[in-house]
Amino acid sequence: MRQYSPDLTPPWKKPKPVPEVPAEPGLVVEEPGSGFCGAVIRCEAGTVTLEDRFGKHRVFPMEPRGFLLEGRVVTLVRPSSGPARPTHTASGSVAVPGARARVARAGRIYVEGRHDAELVEKVWGDDLRIEGVVVEYLEGVDDLPSIVSDFAPGPDARLGVLVDHLVPGSKEWRIAESVTSEHALVVGHPYIDIWEAVKPTSLGFQSWPRVPRGQDWKTGVCRSLGWPPNTGAAWQRILSGVHSYRDLEPELLGRVEELIDFVTS
Asked: For the whole prediction, is pTM greater than 0.85?
């Protein structure tokens, strides 16, 4: 008869149990040994494939206590075969199924145009509704000083603004500097237009066309790509290629997240 030795390990030295989390597609985790952080795109034969926001893939074994989820140690397990609810929003945040939209805050986020607003809504809309943040658009940065003056930002009504092509020394830069304060934050991305903040590979081509100075950029892009010269239709084509934060350039992702944090802090 086999003899079993009692477990004499003190309770405080035993590893604490950690939650088991199904490796559903889209779940964003970190492998602490390598520091690689990405979304689950495949789970098979005891391994999980992650894709980071730059499109790089890595395969890891699904070992116990092998990953971090929102900073907590977890064990990834194979998902069930039945339909599952999304675990994360398009922005990569943890999804909150059934959560009601919060009553709108006094604070606001302004973006430069309608296309910017539609892109922010598509990727961050779920997050913004839960936080109660309303996004409006300016129709150009020239009106920003009067908008900020009328809004009168304060501790309980912060104002965040996203500006296209915000580069040092430009007109947009000078306007942004003139209105920035403790309760008003203006940030920008380096792209000529919000179109360019969408990864071209998500739309089926390798790089955005270079349009000569003096030409309308959007019209030139349509011409170079062989699209009909209808910028409204072109934008809908671009927007339909955006499914999550992974389809956007990091320079835009960081700025929008910064604005959300600023308005909700």
From this structure: no
